[in-house]
Each structure stands twice: as structure tokens, then as C-alpha cells.
Inverse folding.
């Protein structure tokens, strides 16, 4: 059985023909050019679908889109990245391709991929947390995505962890995203650099050409005290949010992706230690969630979209 | 079809024979006397089961217990209230009654009752939040309790909303429970009374014989400024946690029970208003969670336990 997955990104549209085990057989991509408007993007998605399905026997097509996606209505309710409001994507794609696609939020769909055939393969339940520009992710329980009443569930980044704290892009104060995104890490790094002219972070940022998520971690590894403090502070906030996720969902696996996850065990080892102390009833619990890195990389989106159609 | 539900409380054991629609046909209860030890309590539960099932054709028996309960292992992993650690309750009850019981956490099980036949009857998904001594509850999606990998999921009260804030009974700092329980409301009331000797809260507390959850609400209703401030502060924290629950689960219904819920619309109307502004993507969402009061009262536990066995 073969499925087609489409990942609608702000920059590129990606598509792949995928087996039921998540193996990619064929891929293609093209620029999104969201500024052309929704209909033109839907046309480009349709062309990608027709190109990739040509000569293939495809059982189902799934599409992951940024924003709030309502599969029941067949609509992208609201996508800030694409500038779409109540866009009837399923109907448009059906008209042009003949396929009735399944729709999902892009981060949720990528989480489904990691849960079913990636980092959390075989697990009873998994939460995938993406530490990128924002904090996104998805929750998969018994092989099924948690979508909620509207498709807007699993907005993991928009859980307040510091009431009255840093302003988040969503308008609330103190969201997890405002403390645990790669962007938040860069901001903490910039703040610490301003206070510590002696820090090695200045040299590293100059080498990299930017203050990004690597600077503090690499400074810490080089024995820099200010870099160490930034990493500890960042991991503290990350642990608060991850421990909340544990106490709410208690998943078998928490898998982390996105730019910051590239730090691997430099991030994961101290995170595990801090989270385990914050789990509710930790002293008596027999089974603890495993905290791991994601494994599918950028392909999680197309694989998950394909498996959504399964 | 008839089911038996048992609600193991710190003070009383309650049992009821329940129809598949949640109607109670017969009830009984007896004191728990947890200090007698786990085996003696299991004996008392067994007697209650045998008494209530006598002469009845019972299809299944469900038991709700405080603490972390692992139905897969048939164990109460840890119950602070009962002082049980890794107690094999299913095996003990099977020996004495012949029934293979389903086990669940008491708050989760009560949530199942409210979700299936109470406040959220017919809803696709529901989160039940109990504002009592602590903050507990349960999450029900497509008629199924969210149990997590260990049965420890849905610890709604142990989600940090103020990192570094008030110490919670669980040991973490800033848990939702430390701000939104009836106990937290009483504490805020006491603090405001100490600062406002002129407040009507002093007279009300004297009338009630205690500083409880009613004092600030009744003072507010009587036009007392300090009482009004306490209620607003309390509802703010409650709204932060409820909005987090919306952004994580986006359930169709959020139903509130426990002592504070007795305030009805005095609590719910301002809560709805504050939460709706904090929902992620609220401006474009078509469907919003309904925030309502629970309807089954103290019977939610036995009804939910019975339906757990369904």
C-alpha cells in the first residue's frame, strides 16, 4: 500500500510517496510563494500531487499545513504563515486532483510520523516537541493524533508556564514558547552577552555570523561560565514545560526535534535529570517517559502526512 | 446491563449498581478506616461488592481509588491518602469476590462519569476539573479516559503556571493546584483579610465559622472591594490553567466540580470571558469549548467507576 504525503511549508511544498511502514519511495518539492494567494498555492499543491501520483497506485493522500486545520470541515481555519483564513483546501484539491485528502496541522502531522515510524515507533503514546522558531508539536495516543474538538489541540508552546512573564507571539504572557524556543534561547544568549563582555560567546557568535542556538551550548562546552548559565536557565524552562507535559499526558516517549535538538545529549542528559525530579509521584512510578531526540528529520512532515491518510 | 461502581475515598467507601446509562439502581457505603491497613480496606471493599451484587446480574465491576493507579498491572502504585504503595488491589478483590475489577484513579473515574452521562454527555471530548482541597480531574476523549503510559496522566493540578511560585503539596513550585484549589482561594482570602480589617470578609468568616471558599465570593456580591479583588485574582489564575487546558486538549466541554464550583455563574461567567481571550487562535476558531458546571455531584465517582467496567 502506498500513500502520498504533502508538507505545506511557508517556503517550500514538499511531497513524497510513502509505504505503510513510512519508507519514502519518491520525493519532490517546489517553492510555496504564499504571496500568490491561497488558490495559486492550492494549484501548486495539486500539481505536486498529480506529478507524484502519476503512474502510482496511491491509496490515500494526506496534507500537513501550518495553522489551525479542521479536517472535519476540510478547511484551514487560520494560518498566520500562509495568511489563509477559512480556506476550503480539501474542496480545492478535490476539484483539481480528484483525491479527497486528509488534512492536519503540519507540526501534528510530523509528530504522527515520529510517533508511528520514527523516534517513538512502537510506543503506546508519544509527545513530540519541536524547538524551532516557535515551540510546536503533537500528541499521539494509541497511534492516533490528539486533534481536539477543532483540530487546534496540542498547542504545546502556548501553555503558560510563567504567569505574567515574557510576551509570546500569540499575545499571552509567559507561554512555554517564549522560554523554550530556539528564538528564546538566542534572546537569552544575547542578554547574557550584553552583561558579560568577557564571555567566549562573543567570539563564537562572530564565527557563526549570528547569535543562534549553538552559541551558548558551545561556550558551555568550552568552559565559559556565562554560556553555562544560559544553557542551565534554558534547560530549566524547558524542563518545567516538559514536566507539565509528563503530568498531563504521561506519554511513553517524549521526542524532541527542531534546531535546539541538534545539541543531542548536551541538551537531553541534563533535561532528563531535571524532568525526572518534577514528575508527579516520581518516587513510586515504575515506568517513566523516555526523553529522546527525533529521528526522521525534515522528512517527518511528508511521512506523517502520508500516514495520516492511512 | 448492570454495572457495579466502587468509589474508594479517604473517609468512606461508596458503591452503586448502575445501568449502562448511568442511572443508579442501588447504593451502599461504609467507612474506609484506612488506618487499618490495605488488606482490611480491601476486605471492606469486597464485602461492599458482595452485598451490592447479591441477587443482581452484574456484567462488570469498576473501582476508583485515590492516587496513581495502574489498571494494566492491577495495582494502586501509590496513594498518599490511603498510604498504599504498590498494592495489588485487583488480585485481592478477585480472591475475595470472584470479580475481575477494572481500576482507575478516583478523579479520572469521576470525570468519566461526568463525560459520559453528566455535564459533558454526548461531547466528543471533555476535561473535568475538580476544585477541591487540591485540583484534580480527568480527560475523556472519544469516550475513553486518558490514562497515559502508567495511569498517571491527567494530573491537571500539577501543571506549573507560575515558575518559581507558590510551593505545591507535590513539591514543585507554582503548580496550578497552588493557585486554583479551594484551599488556595481560602489562603488568598486570609491574606486579603489580614490586609483589610475593614472588609466584610471578617464578618462573613465569623458567620460561617471558618475562612472558606464562600467568604470572598459572598463579600464580592455584597459590594466589598477586598472580596472582589480576591475573586478576580483567583479567577485570573483559574483562567490561566483552564486556557492552558484548552490550548493543549481543545476539548468540546470543560466541566468544573468541587467546592468552588458551587458558586455557579458567579465563577463561570467571568471565567468564560477571561479564558476566551486566552485561547490560541481564538479570533478565527469556529468552535469554542463550553465551560460548564458538573451535574452528577458526589455520585460521579460511583457512576464513573461503574462505566469504567463497561
Amino acid at each position: 500500500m502506498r500513500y502520498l504525503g504533502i508538507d505545506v511549508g511557508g517556503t517550500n511544498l514538499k511531497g513524497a510517496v510513502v509505504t505503510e511502514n513510512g519508507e519514502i519511495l519518491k520525493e519532490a518539492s517546489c517553492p510555496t510563494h504564499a504571496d500568490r494567494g491561497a488558490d495559486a498555492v492550492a494549484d501548486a499543491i495539486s500539481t505536486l500531487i498529480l506529478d507524484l501520483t502519476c503512474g502510482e497506485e496511491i491509496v490515500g493522500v494526506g496534507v500537513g499545513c501550518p495553522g489551525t486545520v479542521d479536517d472535519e470541515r476540510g478547511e484551514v481555519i487560520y494560518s498566520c504563515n500562509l495568511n489563509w483564513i477559512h480556506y476550503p483546501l480539501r474542496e480545492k484539491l478535490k476539484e483539481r486532483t480528484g483525491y479527497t485528502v486528509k488534512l492536519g496541522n503540519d507540526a501534528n502531522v510530523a509528530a504522527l510520523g515520529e510517533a508511528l515510524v520514527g523516534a517513538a515507533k512502537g510506543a503506546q503514546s508519544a509527545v513530540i516537541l519541536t524547538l524551532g522558531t516557535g515551540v510546536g508539536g503533537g500528541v499521539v495516543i494509541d497511534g492516533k493524533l490528539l486533534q481536539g474538538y477543532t483540530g487546534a489541540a496540542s498547542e504545546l508552546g502556548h501553555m503558560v508556564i510563567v504567569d505574567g512573564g515574557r510576551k509570546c507571539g500569540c499575545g499571552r504572557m509567559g507561554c512555554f514558547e517564549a522560554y523554550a524556543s530556539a528564538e528564546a534561547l538566542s534572546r537569552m544568549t544575547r542578554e547574557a552577552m550584553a552583561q558579560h563582555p568577557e564571555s567566549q560567546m562573543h567570539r563564537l557568535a562572530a564565527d557563526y555570523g549570528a547569535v543562534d542556538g549553538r552559541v551558548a551550548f558551545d561556550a558551555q562546552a568550552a568552559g565559559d561560565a556565562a554560556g553555562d548559565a544560559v544553557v542551565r536557565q534554558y534547560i530549566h524552562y524547558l524542563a518545567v514545560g516538559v514536566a507539565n507535559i509528563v503530568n498531563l499526558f504521561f506519554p511513553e516517549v517524549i521526542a524532541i526535534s527542531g534546531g535546539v535538538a541538534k545539541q543531542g545529549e548536551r541538551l537531553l542528559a541534563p533535561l532528563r535529570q531535571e524532568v525526572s525530579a518534577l514528575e508527579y509521584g516520581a518516587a513510586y512510578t515504575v515506568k517513566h517517559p523516555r526523553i529522546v531526540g527525533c529521528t526522521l528529520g525534515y522528512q517527518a512532515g511528508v511521512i506523517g502526512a502520508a500516514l495520516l491518510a492511512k
User: Anything to note?
Assistant: Chain B touches chain A through 53 residues (CB under 8 Å). The first helix of chain B runs from residue 38 to 53. Residues 2-113+299-309 of chain B form a domain with the Nucleotidyltransferase; domain 5 fold (CATH 3.30.420.40). Chain B has two domains: 2-113+299-309, 123-294.
